[in-house]
Amino acid sequence: MIQLVILGSGNMANAILTSCLKIDVEIFGIYSKNKKHSSALAAKFNIPYFNKIDQIPTNADLYFLCINDDAITEVANNLPVMGGLVVHCSGLKPISVLAKQQNQAVFWPIESIDKTSFTNFKNTPICIEANSEENYRIIEAFADRLSKNIQKINSLERQYLHLAATMTNNFSNHLIALAKNELDLHQLDYTILKHLLTKAINDSFNFEPSQIQTGPAIRNDLSTIQKHLSLIKNNNTKNLYEIMSKSILEFKQNYHA
Amino acid sequence: MIQLVILGSGNMANAILTSCLKIDVEIFGIYSKNKKHSSALAAKFNIPYFNKIDQIPTNADLYFLCINDDAITEVANNLPVMGGLVVHCSGLKPISVLAKQQNQAVFWPIESIDKTSFTNFKNTPICIEANSEENYRIIEAFADRLSKNIQKINSLERQYLHLAATMTNNFSNHLIALAKNELDLHQLDYTILKHLLTKAINDSFNFEPSQIQTGPAIRNDLSTIQKHLSLIKNNNTKNLYEIMSKSILEFKQNYHA
User: For the segment A38-62, what is each residue's pLDDT rounded down to a tens digit?
Assistant: First the structure.
């Protein structure tokens, strides 16, 4: 049976531990400097926790570094060189931050992971990479048990996917927050937009997004744009509306004329 | 049986005619100055077309003005005062642009309507308004046959919904177009993001969007932001990334501190 150690006690640690409940693996325990978080997670999953790096078992097959980007290199360097595969879960950091370790891999689920709502990785694209074919087979075999959608993605490619995920996921949510804020001022329920948005996202992936762009900006419909700007209360939102509109027109002119 | 005239020959005219195929109504015909479009639509639905305003039957129950915002007032003024209900389909124009007519209504589906892919309004929120209770009952009875989701929305409210629909639908599609453009430069398939985006949109409507904001901007994670900016090829996209990131942080500080 495959044996795991989890390093870190945040959302990713929780997600991997939750996913492992459904597959046949042995969790040796969880390491974190944050005693409160790691003991809570250890209690939740009924596994040991370690607060000192020299308490970490050295005979596990997989070491999952579920920690902030900034701390990965430090933790990978503080670990003794393990026989097992040392894996980080960052979208942006290259595999080379694990350089001290002999066996290196990356496991990056393209998913916004929340501690309370996470259920599983079944439909999540998981981007994997390793520093040897043998190590690739090990991380692939593990990822395969969690998700139907495994993608072989190298460090260079992964950072562009991380950028694109941020631009679409985080920024779209912000647009909805800003739109909701404007509607709240007039006691209007923003959920009326859900039908439109759900269809828009589907369409953006079923057609070429630049070709199905609609709205006043792409038509250069200045009277609608001016009317909209006059309605917006929040100056920050007003500014953003103008810049997005200019960007839509500019993109059309320069990329799909 | 209820009797309709359609004015206009664009996407909205096509959508209403398509929807009417499934319900028991009589289409008197279609009016448009654009002979090519109106004759094509008339042939498609096997109905008469009129190119002159004095050819329009005066005894219909409903006159649907499926025309550009800028032309609604002109067409409503050029029409003789009809006994039937004159309806416009604009999200942004107030009902008062129909002032010359005795019986006025608005029928605005919150949907991005495309001539080739339109199927029906069954799940589309349709915002309706009329200038009297009697006229409201007429447009409501009609809308009720096309959609399960009828919303009583006045002209003032409707314009804010139109603004919010533009900000979310059109701008999200643009973000996806920009992200896809960056991925294209590295031969990466953007559809890998679909799972993430679909979940993000659902979450934005299941939770308070500002409370579930994730990503480097909300954490003020400057090293990730700088790294992302260094990866973006398109200067326009780079500029937009910076402004969106500032806006996310600003919104957090001022609205949900």
Answer: 899 999 999 999 999 999 999 999 9
Q: Report pLDDT for B125.
A: 98
For tokens 């096509």, the residue is B14
Token pair of B34 as six digits: 């654009």
Residue B195 is nearest to which of A123, A195, A255, comparing CB atoms? A123
SS3 A242: helix
Domain ranges of chain A: 2-153, 158-255
A229 touches chain B (CB under 8 A): no
Is B240 in contact with A247 (Cβ distance < 8 A)?
yes
- Put simply, whether B11 touches A (Cβ < 8 Å) is no
Question: Which residues of chain B have a CB within 8 Å of the CB of A179?
Answer: 163-164, 167-168
The CATH class that applies to domain A158-255 reads mainly alpha
Separation of alpha carbons A85 and B230, rounded Å: 31
Question: Token pair of A35, please?
Answer: 């005693």
Q: Mutation test of the interface with chain B: which of A97, A161, A202, choosing the one with the most B Cβ atoms within 10 A?
A: A161
Compute the nearest-CA separation of B49 from chain A (Å). Answer: 28
Cβ contact, residue pair A204, B114, below 8 Å: no
Q: Cβ A92–B227 below 8 Å, yes or no?
A: yes
pLDDT one-digit tens code per residue, B207-229: 999 999 999 999 999 999 999 99
Give the alpha-carbon dihedral of B230, B232, B236, B240, to 10 degrees. -80
φ and ψ of A81, to 5 deg: -65, 115
Fold of B2-153: Rossmann fold (3.40.50)
Q: Report the distance separating Cα A25 and Cα A2, nearest Å.
A: 5
Which residues lie across from A87 on neighbouring strands? A64, A105
**Residue A117 neighbours by CB under 8 Å, 6+ apart:** B203
User: Hey, what are B44's tokens?
Assistant: 């498609």
Distance CA B33, CA B17 (A): 18
Exposure on the CB side of residue A236, measured as CA atoms within 13 A: 20
Distance CA A233, CA A185 (A): 9
Q: For strands A125-130 and A104-109, give the pairing.
A: antiparallel
A71-106: pLDDT as tens digits: 999 999 999 999 999 999 999 999 999 999 999 999
